[in-house]
TrEMBL record:
Enzymatic class: transferase
UniProt lineage: Bacteria, Bacillati, Bacillota, Clostridia, Lachnospirales
Alphabetical list of InterPro entries matching this protein: Class_I_gatase-like, Glyco_hydro_b, Ig-like_fold, Lact_bio_phlase-like_N, Lacto-N-biose_phosphorylase, LBP_C, LBP_M
Presence of the UniProt keyword Transferase in the record: yes
Residues in Lacto-N-biose phosphorylase C-terminal domain copies: 666-718
Domain Lacto-N-biose phosphorylase-like N-terminal TIM barrel: 8-438
Gene Ontology molecular function, alphabetical: 1,3-beta-galactosyl-N-acetylhexosamine phosphorylase activity; 1,4-alpha-oligoglucan phosphorylase activity
Pfam families from the UniProt entry: Lact_bio_phlase (PF09508), LBP_C (PF17386), LBP_M (PF17385)
Domain Lacto-N-biose phosphorylase central, chain residue ranges per copy: 442-660
Protein name according to UniProt: 1,3-beta-galactosyl-N-acetylhexosamine phosphorylase
Organism of provenance: Holtiella tumoricola
Keyword Glycosyltransferase on entry: yes
Domain of life: Bacteria
Gene: gnpA
Protein EC: 2.4.1.211
Keywords associated with the record: Glycosyltransferase, Transferase
Length: 720
């Protein structure tokens, strides 16, 4: 099918003084919507050129005169000081040491003895209130124990919005006003916030879509004394906590949270931490408040005849699109930044909205668009990884953000974006709202978070690379474009409801002790026996890294009997291990043409006598399978994203589900290509996921096949 010119489903940014060039790019890219962004304004002359006009609205920093006049109502952080060693009986801790003092101010309005906590980290005991005092930015501890470490958990005010600060520093905005976020929990400020929103809606009649960026609380982003990121957690709630919130929580939930429930030893309850009951209660409490108040804002936009869109970023804390309260907001749309196939699916799978939109990279900022920069390279990589996920579940729109004038200085980039826009519309029109063919079983990803963090496992700062996670997040990336239905389940769900109907394979992946592997959840008899029984009766279980890890009962992997492997932690070195010879021919290995890549892998994994080893290096098992009753267990030491690993995981799913005989339905022989079939429209697409020409054979249902050639990054459509 030719990539003919199509129009619509594309949003682009613009700015004052770039009118004619914007009109030309609207025509060239087929855009039907324009948007502003932080630091830009929409020119009136452009608005009539498009169907949709997105106007960004900052609910909690839109009125800086109010913020500066009511600083007691600013948003607050719960922070923890640096670990400080006591060398004698008196210890002084500088609370702001290591923090960026232009971002935070210590809360001296509320009683420190009531809201703060000093902890002896060596004994994990709280220091009595009478043994410490606060003055002028420092806490002094009397009767400290020499050579013990201490920390202070303290409240502070946010005196510079993290996103505006990042944009300010990145774009060198000089003397531009530092914007301060105010707290919607404060009654006076909440009333004012709704009042000025109403006024703004009345004044902006030509705005058709209110782009709430987002609602009330920013994810945790704290900068250090060098104005660089100190702690960033895209899922962090510690910047949404205030005495008002804690008092309301106690009144509603019947117990009092402690500062340690929030700062959690300085981990700030990152998603890698197994969440405590108190923290889960806090999340639910905050989500309920945010969603109910956000619903009022959306209703106001609807009353003025405008659509309401939420940006899945910045102040998104409390909205949780896969949480139980999100539906209350009644949003028309969600837009989010696409950094991978996983983040594309994180957006496109969101329920309870009319449409979704992906903001593609690169952002039109000078950190990419500068002399010597290569924005085309980043754009190609971004489109290539997102496209395979789009084939499974597309967003309804795509778009870009930043300064359009910067992008226009790179003609090759402008041309490439034109290609992306046309190809996206071609894909969307061919899919036409239909569901693609999937394997005859569901794949469930099991971790401590379950549905709440669908497509969000192992993320730290929204799709950024980390050494400790790429071996696991590759699983989610592979699944994002794979021909399987994916469900995210939690240990609590298994305990309360069992394993969902239709699930044929469970994947448990992560390092020991993390929320993703499960930590102490594997000390629960109900979890272990439910999974064992389910697999024994025909289910499939794939463990990656340190699955079911919890040292107990002579095992490190609590499902060692099911997986066929365990981890040597030193206690069984005296027990000989003889199963160390891998077999070469197996269903899982049929597409392996390059050395297997397990990423960081896992040391000291050994096979049980009955397991079938498929890969072993230096006595460490990398890949093994195990028959368990009527079911199967599979162990993989790590799975970074690649074409070969994607095919390996797909084969592992079919084998674990005992459905390998059906593997060749609607598939390709070349792992660098993928096939998607849409039964309702009788259309099929084959895509090339590389920058080189690829030849592949496509298998149709029933055994028929056809060889095709695909150009670099090419896509071919067929009517079946």
């Amino acid at each position: 099918m030719e990539n003919t010119k199509r129009m619509g489903r594309v949003t682009i940014p613009t700015q004052v003084g770039f009118d004619q060039e914007t009109i030309e790019l609207i025509a060239r890219w087929g855009a039907d919507a324009i948007r502003d962004c932080d630091g830009t304004k929409l020119p009136d002359s452009i608005k009539k050129e498009v169907e949709k006009v997105y106007t960004t609205y900052f609910l909690t920093r839109g009125d800086q005169e109010w913020a500066y006049s009511n600083q007691e109502d600013l948003q607050q952080f719960y922070l923890m000081s640096e670990y400080t060693l006591a060398e004698g009986n008196t210890l002084e801790i500088d609370l702001l040491k290591g923090f960026f003092e232009q971002q935070i101010r210590i809360d001296e309005l509320h009683d420190a003895k009531e809201w703060w906590e000093v902890i002896d980290r060596t004994t994990e005991e709280r220091v009595a209130k009478e043994s410490w005092s606060y003055n002028n930015g420092k806490v002094t501890i009397e009767n400290a124990i020499p050579w013990h470490e201490y920390t202070v958990s303290f409240l502070s005010y946010a005196i510079w919005d993290p996103t505006q600060m990042y944009n300010h520093i990145t774009n060198d905005w000089g003397d531009k006003l530092h914007e301060m976020p105010y707290d919607a929990r404060k009654p006076k400020t909440r009333d004012h916030m709704l009042k000025i929103l109403k006024e703004w809606l009345n004044e902006n009649e030509d705005c058709t879509v209110v782009r709430f960026t987002t609602f009330f609380y920013h994810f945790t982003l704290v900068f250090n004394d060098l104005a660089k990121e100190k702690f960033v957690d895209w899922f962090g709630y510690s910047a949404s906590i205030s005495p008002d919130a804690l008092e309301a929580f106690q009144q509603e939930r019947g117990y009092k949270l402690t500062p340690e429930d929030i700062v959690n030893k300085g981990y700030y309850n990152s998603p890698f931490c197994v969440p405590s009951k108190a923290y889960l209660d806090l999340l639910d409490f905050q989500q309920q408040f945010v969603c109910e108040l956000a619903a009022k804002c959306v209703e106001m936009a609807h009353e003025r005849g405008k659509e309401a869109m939420m940006f899945l970023g910045d102040n998104w804390i409390g909205t949780e699109p896969y949480g139980k309260h999100f539906e209350k907001i009644k949003l028309d749309a969600v837009v989010g930044s696409v950094g991978s196939g996983a983040t594309l699916r994180m957006i496109s799978d969101i329920p309870h909205v009319k449409y979704t939109e992906g903001r593609f990279l690169p952002y039109f900022f000078p950190d990419t668009f500068h002399e010597g920069g290569d924005p085309v390279k980043e754009a190609r990589e971004n489109w290539l990884c997102a496209r395979r996920a789009i084939m499974r579940k597309p967003v309804d729109r795509i778009g870009y953000g930043g300064y359009l004038s910067l992008a226009a200085q790179f003609p090759d980039f402008v041309e490439y974006v034109e290609h992306v826009c046309n190809e996206f519309r071609e894909i969307y029109e061919n899919i036409n709202g239909t569901k693609p063919y999937v394997a005859p079983f569901k794949v469930a990803v099991l971790n401590s978070w379950g549905k709440l963090r669908s497509w969000q496992t192992h993320m730290v700062a929204h799709a950024l690379w980390y050494k400790q996670i790429y071996s696991y997040i590759g699983i989610i990336e592979a699944l994002s474009g794979m021909a399987v239905d994916v469900e995210f389940i939690s240990f609590d769900q298994i305990k309360e409801e069992g394993i969902p109907e239709g699930v044929g394979v469970i994947i448990n992946a992560g390092d020991a002790g993390t929320a993703w592997s499960g930590g102490e959840n594997w000390n629960d008899e109900k979890v272990i026996t439910t999974i064992r029984e389910w697999v024994y009766n025909g289910g499939g279980f794939i463990g990656v890294g340190e699955p079911s890890a919890y040292l107990k009962g002579g095992h490190f992997f609590q499902l060692a009997d099911l997986l066929g492997v365990d981890k040597e932690v030193g206690f069984t070195l005296s027990t000989r291990k003889y199963n160390q010879t891998p077999i070469k021919d197996h269903f899982l290995l049929e597409d392996v043409t390059e050395p297997l890549d397990f990423g960081e892998g896992m040391k000291n994994i050994y096979a049980k006598p009955n397991a079938t080893v498929l890969n072993i290096e230096k006595e460490d098992v990398g890949l093994a399978v195990n028959q368990y009753g009527k079911g199967r267990g599979i162990y993989i030491s790590g799975l970074p994203y690649s074409a070969q690993n994607t095919r390996l995981l797909l084969r592992a799913c079919y084998f674990a589900a005992s459905k390998e005989a059906l593997f060749n339905s609607w598939s390709t022989t070349n792992p660098y290509t993928e096939c998607t079939y849409y039964p309702e429209t009788k259309k099929m697409a084959v895509i090339n996921n590389t920058y080189e020409e690829q030849i592949t054979t496509v298998y149709f249902e029933g055994g028929n096949k056809q060889e095709i050639t695909l150009e670099p990054m090419g896509i071919k459509w067929f009517n079946i």
